[in-house]
Design brief:
The complex is a heterodimer of chains A (about 675) and B (about 100). Chain A has about 675 residues and is mainly α. In chain A, about 70% of the residues lie in helices and about 5% in strands. Chain B has about 100 residues and is mainly α. Chain B has a domain of about 60 residues: Helix Hairpins (Orthogonal Bundle). Chain B has three helices and no strands. Chain B starts with 5 loop residues before the first helix and ends in a 13-residue tail after the last helix. The mean pLDDT of chain B is about 90. Classes of the chains: A mainly alpha (about 675), B mainly alpha (about 100). Chains A and B meet through α29 of A and α1 of B.
């Protein structure tokens, strides 16, 4: 198993790329920077593929495959090894991250072609890949934390890539600081984890947790506390209520960055972490409920904001927040596989949406306001079709990737072992809102009349290195969900079945239980959760398959999604004057949504401004300048003045020196005499 | 034969040493200061000799010889310095020699 033994190679490649470009690339031609950047991520992707091939040949007893490379921290009982692991969950994440990452690297060579700091951009991007892969491959929570913070750093660097622009620099800071609030909880969670289990290795923790009694709703103990603390970190990183405010601002960064970091990979790290820690979450029902509630509320809440935004990237940002809410809803109702499934399909279609938005912005010469676009369909057909497909995918139209994953999440929320009908309804309404605002975006941007001066704006299709990644991602936005397609006609959901060994102790839905080959352990877990196990897998009869199919593709999420599409069509194609009328008649609500519920203003008034005031007046002017500077400068002044007085003793007058000698001699003699007298 | 008690010698030695110290501190003429150093050295010599005699040991006597040798060397160097100062400053007043300071 050559590559499974050397998992570090996957990490070393992008790190080397980042180092080479960052240290040497300044004066290199763009082609050289390109080859280093794309070469390193492509090689990393190939390494991942080879790892997957080798992993699939491993016997089940050797999964998860853990490889420890060197002891990293050793302080008393606290021991951390730099260790990496591979299991099915890692595989899904590795493939998604490295493949989407590679495509976005290629796209960036076109998008950033005319920008300054080209080498710097790719160096950061490679560094991001390194940290993201570290996060995914980590076999203990401390190494995971390194990746977790590292991607946060790269996010900061890339949001503020155009740091001469004040708003970009501020957005970078905002992202970093808001995420840090969540990370505080995460850090405390790690400490509590070590304190409880005396280890930071996932394997050890999970084995011990399996032997612990579960917390219940009424009695929330240390497991619940740990889970809630860890989830705080996820709230910050994955932009959930109430810490989501940084993500819309993060759109100040270059669009490929928004696609890679703020849609496809980094922001999903929280979902991955919750899924990774599922043995703990499953034993903490209160924490599960909190995860589900936060997820569903966020999904609904940010979808409502997305309805009225006019900046194309802002719509996508709120949409991302909303979709991340879905993933947490899935985790909260115990459907981890569905959450990870949505994570993957979301990486495809949301990455694609951002890249297409970037392509449209590129074509419009930097314009981001959708009201000033319109009718771009003919001018940039590749971008249009790719974005059209991605919009179908996110709206959950049957057959597209988003349909399968979103459907599974809502199914689990409706009828899974942790079903929660109010949350299911929230998710359902959010699905309708999603398809409405996404088609609103499409209609405003690509259909209707052109709202710009054709002589001033030279609309042009993007170069090939930008459109080819679009096509590949469009392909995946359709077929990326088809692992689950046999389910529609009563077959196995291969994605859930693939992940089942990871989540074997978590009861999944009856549908999955019925149609997936199970191991003994999985059966036991399912029986304990009150699910029925048939002795034989129950194949759906061919004559019922058609019914099954019709049933599956006309479920509530699909209906609601289609309604959303129709309403969008009615509003923006059929009767384009309607939205304005509606906005006028519901002025209060419209203004509220347009101003994003004034959350930024509320935070500014209640947290940021008081904090700034305290920092300026108390911490800066009083503590720093008064106390700390006062102490430092004061001791310096004391030394100087004491020295000034003391040096007058050295007068140059030999007789005064002699007097000092005498005084000294008398002193010493007196001292000796005193000692002598004490002794006798 | 009555022996002079050691305390007599020591008192004499202390008085001589004290006179040397006082002269060293208060006198301004370098030559006088120089002489007061000699006075202090010899006061100490006297104490050494007295102790050596009282304890019937040679150590103190040997020490005195060393002191005398050192004093001779010191006189040679010291007088050379005095002459140099006298040539440079046209004065033997120690107050005029005050460059050895900050």
């Amino acid at each position: 198993m050559p590559l499974l033994d050397h998992l570090w190679i996957i990490l070393a490649l992008p790190l080397a790329g980042a180092a080479i470009n960052g240290l040497l690339g300044k004066n290199w031609p763009k082609s050289a920077v390109n080859s280093v950047a794309i070469g390193s991520v492509s090689l990393a992707f190939l390494a991942v593929v080879e790892t997957v091939r080798e992993f699939l040949q491993l016997p089940a007893s050797q999964v998860p495959w853990v490889k420890s490379y060197f002891p990293w921290i050793s302080a008393g009982a606290f021991k951390v090894n730099f260790s990496l692991q591979v299991d099915q969950l890692t595989i899904v994440m590795l493939l998604t991250v490295s493949f989407v990452g590679m495509l976005i690297h290629i796209y960036s060579t076109g998008y950033m072609a005319h920008e300054g700091g080209y080498y710097r951009f790719f160096s950061y991007l490679n560094l991001f890949m390194f940290f993201m892969l570290t996060l995914v491959l980590a076999a203990n929570i401390v190494v995971m934390f390194v990746g977790w913070e590292g991607v946060g750093l790269c996010s900061y660097l890339l949001i503020g890539f155009w740091f001469l622009k004040q708003s970009a620099a501020n957005a970078g800071k905002k992202a970093f600081i808001v995420t840090r609030i969540g990370d505080f909880g995460f850090t405390v969670g790690i400490l509590l984890l070590f304190w409880t289990f005396h280890s930071v290795d996932f394997g050890t923790i999970f084995t011990q947790a399996a032997g612990m009694p579960s917390d219940t709703m009424a009695q929330a103990g240390v497991l619940t506390t740990i889970c809630l603390l860890l989830f705080t970190g996820a709230i910050g990183k994955s932009a959930q209520l109430p810490l989501y405010v940084w993500l819309p601002d993060a759109m100040e960064g270059p669009t490929p960055v928004s696609a890679l970091i703020h849609a496809a990979t980094m922001v999903t790290a929280g979902v991955y972490m919750v899924a990774r820690m599922h043995p703990l979450f499953s034993r903490a029902p209160v924490a599960m409920l909190v995860v589900a509630i936060v997820g569903a509320l966020t999904a609904f809440y940010s979808a409502t904001i997305g309805l009225v935004q006019t900046d194309i990237k802002k719509v996508l940002a709120y949409s991302t927040v909303s979709q991340l809410g879905y993933m947490f809803l899935a985790c909260g109702v115990g459907a981890y596989a569905a959450g990870i499934f949505h994570l993957m399909t979301h990486a495809f279609f949301k990455g694609l949406l951002f890249l297409c938005a970037g392509s449209a912005i590129h074509a419009m010469g930097g314009e981001q306001d959708m009201r000033k676009m319109g009718g771009l369909r003919k001018a940039i057909p590749v971008t249009f079709w790719a974005m059209f497909i991605a919009t179908f995918a996110i709206s959950g139209v049957p057959g597209f990737a988003g349909f399968f994953s979103k459907d599974e999440i809502l199914e689990a929320a409706q009828s899974g072992p942790h079903a929660n009908l109010p949350l299911w309804l929230l998710g359902l309404v959010a699905a309708g809102l999603t398809s409405f605002y996404m088609f609103r975006l499409i209609f405003l941007t690509f259909f209707g009349e052109q709202h710009f001066d054709e002589h001033k704006v030279h609309v042009h299709e993007s170069p090939r290195n930008m459109t080819i990644p679009l096509m590949i991602l469009a392909f995946l936005s359709i077929f990326g969900g088809w692992f689950a397609a046999p389910k529609l006609v009563g077959g196995t959901d291969y994605f859930a079945a693939f992940l089942l060994p990871v989540f074997e102790d978590v009861p999944v839905t009856q549908t999955i239980i019925d149609r997936t080959p199970l191991t003994e352990q999985m059966k036991n877990a399912a029986i304990q959760a009150g699910l029925k196990i048939d002795p034989e897998p129950r194949p759906v009869a061919p004559e019922n398959a058609a019914m099954e199919f019709v049933h599956a593709v006309t479920g509530p999420p699909v209906i609601v999604g289609l309604i959303g599409i129709l309403v969008a069509w009615w509003f923006y194609i059929r009767r384009p004057e309607l939205p304005e009328k509606l906005a006028r008649s519901m002025h209060g609500l419209y203004t509220l949504l347009l101003n994003k519920y004034y959350v930024d203003e509320i935070y500014a008034a209640t947290i940021v401004r008081p904090l700034l005031w305290i920092s300026t007046n108390v911490l800066w002017h009083t503590v720093d300048e008064g106390l700390i500077d006062g102490t430092v400068n004061g001791s310096a002044r004391l030394a100087r003045e004491a020295g000034g007085k003391l040096r007058e003793l050295q007068s140059g007058n030999a007789r005064s020196y002699a007097s000092w000698v005498v005084v000294g001699a008398v002193g010493v003699t007196a001292l000796l005499l005193g000692i002598w007298m004490k002794v006798h | 034969m009555s022996v002079v008690p050691i305390s007599y010698y020591l008192v004499l030695s202390a008085v001589l040493f004290g006179l040397g110290v006082v002269a060293f501190v208060f006198k301004r003429n370098i030559i006088t200061i120089f002489m007061s150093i000699e006075l202090m050295l010899n006061a100490v010599n006297l104490a050494f000799v007295a102790f050596a005699r009282a304890h019937n040991q040679l150590d103190g006597l040997v020490f005195v010889f060393f002191v005398i040798v050192v004093a001779a060397a010191e006189a040679a160097v010291g007088l050379a310095i005095v002459i140099t100062i006298a040539q440079n400053r046209r004065s033997l007043n120690v107050e005029k020699v005050d460059l050895l300071k900050f």
